[in-house]
Amino acid sequence: MAWTDLSICLEGPVVDDIRAHFVQRWNFEYDLQYAPAINDRIERLKLSDSDDRYHNNGTNMHAFANFLEPSHTKRASGEDRGLSVQLVRSVGRWSHGTPTEHSIANAYVSVIAKSEHFIYIENQYFITGTSDDQTFVLNKIGAAIVERVIRAAKSGERYRIIVVMPAVPAFAGDVQYDSSPGTLAIMGLQYKSISRGKHSIMQRIRDAGVDPDDYISFYNLRSYDRIDTSANVENQSGVSYESARKEHDDVVGAGYNGRGEDTSGNSLPNSQYNRYQQAARSEQCKDNNADSSGMQRRSDSTIVPQASHHYEEIDAIVSEEVYVHSKFLIADDRVVIVGSANLNDRSQLGYRDSEIAVVIEDTAVVDSHMNGEPFPAARFAAGLRRQLFRRYVGLLPRQAANQSHNNFPPLSATGNDYDWGSEGDRLVQDPLSESFDMLWKNTARMNTKAFDKVFRPLPSDSVRNWDDYEEYYGQYFASPSVSGAEDLGTNLKPKFQYGHVFKHNFPGGIRDVRLELEKIKGTLVEMPLDFLVEIEDLEKEGFSEDFRPEVYA
After folding, report:
1. CA dihedral sign of residues 169, 172, 174, 180
2. Which parts of the chain are coiled coil (predicted)?
């Protein structure tokens, strides 16, 4: 599965805050777990601090909880680069030995409320509340979104919120209720946060007489590639693709469960993996992957690699969602919140999961535009958003994995290199312009239609209930992991492999598949907000009386 995430490199005074946070956590765990009489090799930590902002046990003399409290913000600024960096956290008695702190949630609410033009959110989850009347979703980031949109509508402002999140969150596997109740629980809670029910963001906006589609939209990411399991390679090497894969997985790591594939794999020249790879090099393919779908096209090539055996090529093309693991927000191309916190109660309330994040404001500006007008944008925030948007709509410069690049050196040495003023940069510069709106929405629409035709993925707006699920997907892609498969035997054998080409749509074969895939630019697709919309309380599907929403919210 493809994966997207965001990490940052920090230097300067904010590192003192991070050190203090670590010392607090270490000493809290030390007091719980260790005693000198039991283990004299592990000690409590003392913090040496350059400007006496912390006690030597890591306790902050200026509370983290006061988000953007002036004296703390000043001390945490990155003087060399003109950056103001504020550490924020979700911590509590059980996790950190401190009073409950939810300064990450405070930051999200504050930044959304103060935003003037535009919010971009990219997060692994989207579970939030809009009203105090809700029973088990308590964070109010959704309420801040509703209030800001309604305020924009009443004042006649052009304002926009874009959210990118995973198509299927949390767990791998089928979304059928009896095989993945946890996945459906999260999806159900997310749909109720976004568009279903009286407390959803869209319904609250609609109740105020405002069309939510004019202000907020949700998207997923999807990609495709080629996995070459050529019979020619298998015959030449004497090794099946699966055998080579399993041995390689054992060599590089046994995975989360630690059991691995039990192949006794090694990296010697005569290993199954190396024999397979050697044979694969002799296969004449134009390219090895479809990574260029996120980049500007070459005029002399097709996006889909061409194998020497067309009857195998159609089976080698596969698609999966790009799993969004990021957790950040960009406001007005001026402020960035980035860290470990998901957009849900578990990460935002403070007394549940512990999290850490930073709020970044850059005083270095670049000339930009917002809603067609000249606009001084923050260099860090604007560059980050534009780079991501160009990747999602297929406007990145081509980059070969075996060639050097200006962004290879460590960030602490050179910073990020970005091609300001390039054609691709100009196309995504103004997130409120009509031209960008058309580019973004039309790309998402075209990509969605192409992926639906070639792969018939889930979730889909064509599946509104479980009967639709069976008609649209289950009868073609039934998985042996579905409950009851062992009793049905060969009757459940799928007509098509999961994630592979839906051949019923392509009687003309691989050429027609290529023509459809060439329509795809980048990875952006529309989020299917009507998936299983006719199932009431989707989050409870697959559970009996013991459904506990707080586990998933």
Report:
1. negative
2. none
Q: Are strands 373-378 and 160-164 parallel, antiparallel or unpaired?
A: unpaired
Dihedral sign for Cα 284, 287, 290, 291, please: positive
Helix (H, G, I), strand (E, B) or coil at 455: helix
What are 125-162's pLDDT values in tens digits? Answer: 999 999 998 888 999 999 999 999 999 999 999 999 99
Q: Show the tokens assigned to 174.
A: 């089928």
Do 164 and 324 touch, CB atoms closer than 8 A? yes
Which string of b and e fits 195-221 if b means at least 16 CB within 10 Å? bbeebbbbbbbeeeebebeebbbbbbb
For the chain, list residues with pLDDT below 70: 35-39, 49-81, 171-174, 177-179, 228-230, 253-270, 282-312, 478-493, 544-545
pTM comes to 0.86
DSSP string, 509-545: -HHHHHHHHTT--SSEEE--TTTTTTSTTGGGTT--T
Angstrom CA distances, 120 to 267, 335, 380, 468, stand at: 44, 11, 14, 33
Q: For 492-538, how does the pLDDT look when each residue is reduced to its tens digit (9 = 90+)?
A: 567 888 889 999 999 999 999 999 999 999 999 999 999 999 999 99
Cα separation of the two ends of the chain? 24
How far is the C-alpha of 458 from the C-alpha of 412, rounded, in Å? 41
